[in-house]
């Protein structure tokens, strides 16, 4: 039976109704949106959930509106848990993926000399956080080497470092923001479990476009945003905290009255669930919008999205591969839907502006976002194009043609 709020049909092998999905996405009428790795275009049920709640707050009051929508608010935790194969009690709302990440780091009692083992393709804000931990707590940051074939981190080399250094934390970004590389997070997780090491995965760019299963990955902590491939609102994300960490008493450095109970003048007790990582004040419209976005993704179907979205990116790479003046930068055996490339004759800002003028949304990445990766590739900047399942093949071809045409000429004249 078709869901009245959906543009698809439930079935053992869901088939995407592209026309209906695009009709459900108002932004498709005005732009070619290839910046889903920045923010996805929200669907109508997401807009409706948020606007309806704001109207309710205005009509009856904020506290009263949140009480009236308690079941829908709780569905945020249930829907995210279903999406990543977890239990609702292991999910905490966060204002962003970075908010979730720093909350997770704050729960680890780092001591001088502790090792953080990460990769050369970890997200920039994560790398800065590690450097801040080094400055404040004296931790050592170790970067595992990449595999020589360009497929991402060398898992065996990383495993040897795990055994030799016994890191306090292993931290990996599933898909870095600066390329389509997909790191082998499940393989890394198997080594972490064997050695009983704490494992944190940044799934900011993978949740919503790829299948993400925390049991399969074997992570203790996982962070993500809702604004990207999940197509939720800005200012929303989540943190997954494994039950073993909750039982072990992990809690954020600063915990408030929502995450703990003040049991005596000089004592408090954290709540049993991942709610200990949340704060009392919630942006309820964003929470409800995020819940609607996750439900929408589940209704569309994780598997068909995970097939179509990277396939659109692969088509784009294929079309750009022979374009004069364009150098594709993505590595790995099966890249995700982040297509990155350098353009010989242009500076970053003017090239993006030229695409903007054609109604094509894109994003820039600079050397400061990926110090190791961009040094290896010898680039100062790249353009990132990130299609999603609601984009069409015709849009892919039009974007590829536009990039190729622009790349053939410098801003001041024809090549």
How would you characterize the overall build of this protein?
The chain has two domains: 59-298, Aspartate Aminotransferase, domain 2, CATH 3.40.640.10; 302-410, Aspartate Aminotransferase, domain 1, CATH 3.90.1150. The longest helix has 19 residues, at 302-320. The chain is globular. Helix 4 crosses helix 11 and helix 7 (155-165) runs parallel beside helix 8. The protein has a seven-stranded mixed sheet with strand order 2-8-7-6-5-3-4, sandwiched between helices. It has a four-stranded antiparallel sheet with strand order 11-12-15-14. The chain has a two-stranded parallel sheet with strand order 1-13. Residues 1-14 have low confidence and may be disordered. 48% of the residues are buried. The protein has helices at 18-23, 44-60, 62-68, 70-84, 97-106, 124-137, 155-165, 185-195, 214-217, 243-247, 284-300, 302-320, 348-357, 371-377, 393-407, and strands at residues 32-33, 91-94, 115-118, 140-143, 169-173, 199-202, 221-225, 237-241, 260-264, 267-270, 326-328, 339-343, 360-361, 363-366, 381-385, 409-410, 413-414. The protein has 415 residues and is α/β, with parallel strands linked by helices. Helix content is 40%, strand content 16%. The N and C termini lie far apart (56 Å).
């Amino acid at each position: 039976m078709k869901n009245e709020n959906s543009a698809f049909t439930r079935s053992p092998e869901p088939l995407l109704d592209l026309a209906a999905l695009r009709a459900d996405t108002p932004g498709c009428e005005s732009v070619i949106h290839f910046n889903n790795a920045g923010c996805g275009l929200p669907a109508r049920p997401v807009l409706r959930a948020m606007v309806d709640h704001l109207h309710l707050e205005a009509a009856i009051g904020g506290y009263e509106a949140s009480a009236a929508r308690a079941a829908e608010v709780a569905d945020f935790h249930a829907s995210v848990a279903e999406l990543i194969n977890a239990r609702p009690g292991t999910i905490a709302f966060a204002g962003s993926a970075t908010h979730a990440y720093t909350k997770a780091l704050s729960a680890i009692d780092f001591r001088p000399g502790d090792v953080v083992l990460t990769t050369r393709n970890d997200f920039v804000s994560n790398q800065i956080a590690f450097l801040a931990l080094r400055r404040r707590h004296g931790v050592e940051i170790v970067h595992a080497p990449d595999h020589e074939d360009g497929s991402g981190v060398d898992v065996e080399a990383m495993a040897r470092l795990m055994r030799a250094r016994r890191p306090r934390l292993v931290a990996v970004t599933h898909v870095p923001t600066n390329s389509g590389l997909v790191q082998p997070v499940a393989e890394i997780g198997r080594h972490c479990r064997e050695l009983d090491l704490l494992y944190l995965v940044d799934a900011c760019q993978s949740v919503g476009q790829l299948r993400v299963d925390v049991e399969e990955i074997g992570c203790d902590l996982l962070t993500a945003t809702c604004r990207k491939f999940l197509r939720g609102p800005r200012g929303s994300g989540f943190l997954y905290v494994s039950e073993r960490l909750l039982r072990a008493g992990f809690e954020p450095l600063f915990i408030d009255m929502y995450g703990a109970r003040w049991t005596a003048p000089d004592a408090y007790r954290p709540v049993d669930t991942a709610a200990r990582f949340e704060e009392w004040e919630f942006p309820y419209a964003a929470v409800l919008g995020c819940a609607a976005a996750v439900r929408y993704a589940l209704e569309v179907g994780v598997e068909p999205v995970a097939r179509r979205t990277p396939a659109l990116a692969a088509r784009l790479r294929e079309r750009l591969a022979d374009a004069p003046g364009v150098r594709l930068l993505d590595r790995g055996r099966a890249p995700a839907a982040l297509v990155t490339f350098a353009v010989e004759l242009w500076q970053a800002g003017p090239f993006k502006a030229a695409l903007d003028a054609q109604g094509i949304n894109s994003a820039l990445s600079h050397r400061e976002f990926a110090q190791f990766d961009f040094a290896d590739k010898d680039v100062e900047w790249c353009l990132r194009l990130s299609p999603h399942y609601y984009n069409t093949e015709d849009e892919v071809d039009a974007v590829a043609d536009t990039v190729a045409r622009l790349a053939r000429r410098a801003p001041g004249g024809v090549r």
